[in-house]
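Q: What would this complex look like in 3D?
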Amino acid sequence: MADAFLKLQSISKTYPGVRALKGVSFDIGAGEVVGLIGENGAGKSTLMKVLGGVVAPSGGKIVIDSKSFDALTVPQSLGAGIAFVHQELNLFDNLDVAANVFIGREPRSFGPLRLIDRKTLYARVTPLLRRLGCDFEADTSVADLSIAQCQMLEITKALSLEARVIIMDEPTSSLTLTETDRLLGIVADLKASGVAVIFISHRLNEIERCADRVVVLRDGEMVGALSRASINHDTMIRLMIGRDLQTVYVPPNVAVGAPALELVGIETSAYPGRPVTLDLRRGEILGLGGLIGAGRTEVARTIFGIDRLIAGAIRMDGAPIAIKTPRDAIDRGIYLIPEDRKRSGLILDESIVNNISLPNLKAYSRGSIVDRAAELRNAEEQSGSLRIKAPTVETFVNAMSGGNQQKVVLGKWMGMNPRVIVFDEPTRGIDVGSKAEIYALMRSLADRGVAILMISSDMEEVIGVSDKVAVMHEGAITGVLGREQMTENNILSLAVGNRL
Amino acid sequence: MKKDLGLLLLILVVGAIVAVINPRFISPVNISNTANLIGLYGIFSIGEGFVIITGGIDLSIGSVFALLGVIFIQLVNGDGVNWIVAAAIIVAAGGVIGFVHGFLITRAHLQPFVVTLCGLLIYRGVARYYTDDGTAGFDFGTSYPTLEWITTGRSFGVPNSFTAFIILALVMSVVLHRSVFGRYLFAVGKNEEAARYSGINTRAVIFAAYVICSGLAALSSIYFAMYTRSISPASHGTFYELYGIAAAVLGGCSLRGGEGSILGIMLGAVLLQILQNLVNLLGIPSSLNFAVMGSVILIGVLADGQLQRFRRSRAATVVEAKTAPA
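A: Here is my prediction, written as structure tokens for the whole assembly.
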């Protein structure tokens, strides 16, 4: 490691109220492959944004070739040979391969006209494609490429920038097994030609296969650095999660009842051929764990009638039901607290009362005219029992905090007649106090006989709140755990696709 | 509400200036004529407003006037159909046009601009073909007293078209600001996805807006046909959709959707007609008509934007002051 050209020295980043990174240090040398792992929200993305020059750290130094920076700008990052292959591909699919590789720095010709010199463009891209063994040409349209080929294209782009370190963020998340093998082969080739790679993945077996070293982040801190010899599954999982739980589990006060909603082999468009079977029982909080992109939100959207059911059946109280629109679900007492409250949960540019009445407006109207007094009464009742902090119910929700906004989303449904409620990441970006209130609300709903499905990527929340946890991996349920088996280790193992 | 007040103020100021320069502006005859035009242009502006609140637009209105206008004259004058039946047919035909627009926008997922632009071209083309590019008009000496009274008559000096506009505005104001449908319309315009997640049939709401818009355009087309009494489909109603859009935008509708009020649209329609009138009364060359209108709208929208920014920054400082640690 004597030849480390890129050094991060105790990098910190503080956002208002959150410490995203706390004194993270690591080095990378030419031809090294470093695996970077950590749970969702551990600080991996922030760290990479610091390297990319998108986020300025609040403390620490970045040293490149013994030149020290407090923060990088994007051009400095590019100039230093740092290149990204993003999880969400940033390609222009209306252009061809070569145009994408040289986007923004096209070779020019015809002097002052500065037209694009297509000949030089293709002449420079083709050798790069050959070097990576790509099975497509410089003039292939990006729209015709598979996801794996797009990934190759991103790597080509990185090489064209004369990258010295390529950061791959979950590069295999949408690849098949053979494509993954090829990608790992390319990582080995890059390594052999002296290019360093930072490989971010939740798939620990890939990390085991390709990494020289592993850096583990947890809650913004670097909790471990493993050398090649000590990289193994169990150690990595232990380092990723090893912390004390703070949420105290409250057991149900009433006996768990019969299933309110049965999902029988349902398939979603995101993962066709991967059926999901689950029972949502009255009085039970069923946690649904897994990594982001495991297909949990798709299940929620299907239950709520946003996405079409591709195969399988949904039964309510034993009888098959058809849910084609959210209205069908709502009329049966099936409600969804969506993942993205600002986009799907709320009309931000509206008042609390108008948001709360929206799903049940007919109940607060006479004929087809809205009864303002009735809807205000309901909104005030919900606002009071949920302890929404706002001057009046006429306050607009865009001015409110995340926790209070989420309470407004809950308030939409509490005045109705819930039978099944799906909470999708109910406490994301919410302060601790509101979190506790939302957990208590879930428990009291369950005790009233409501079946609760809680999707969460927050391990502490899953274990602290659920009576039972189902874990998903790539669209399928890999296991269901009762309280006694519910450890972070077990959940994470199932989430990365291992069997217990 | 504050926006409406600002617009009212602008109308009064412009009106006062014009009245001082040319007192004929406030003569009963001029007021009555202007009121008639406000009624004619106001009716379809309300429909355009509904569509704009959903985040859409309807560019086809002027061509609808040409097509349905010539059909109306043909029915009443040529085919001798009872005018009540003919009017019902015309309004129904408008509903069908709106239905087609709604279908193409919500089911075929085409952009409202494209759909109604094609409508603009198609309806005018069909209207011109229908009359062989000639002029459709009522035969000399024919008379339909009741129809004429309703559309072009006056009661106590007030044009009946203006009264019709006021009644319609009152009804639509209840629909937009008091009814469940109105609330849904704003919800869809502000955040279609959240509306869908609240169980609203967003497609049906958007559909309804286009049907209402074209239905009102059809009603207007009868008023315009009776006002002009003869229609040359190559030019009848050209650009009129822009008056509707301008009135709605002046009245506080955002083209992004989710904003607007009936009172605002009414005031917008009033201001537009005053501007038209002012060009005539102040001896400004009538060729400058559009330029004057465009300039005033531009200035109005600019001033409104500045005012809002000012208010927002003031609101922000107030909030900061309130939340700052003591």
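A: To summarize the key features: Chain B touches chain A at residues 174, 178-181, 183-184, 186-187, 190-191, 193-201, 258, 319 (CB under 8 Å). The longest helix of chain B spans residues 289-323.
Q: Very helpful, thank you.
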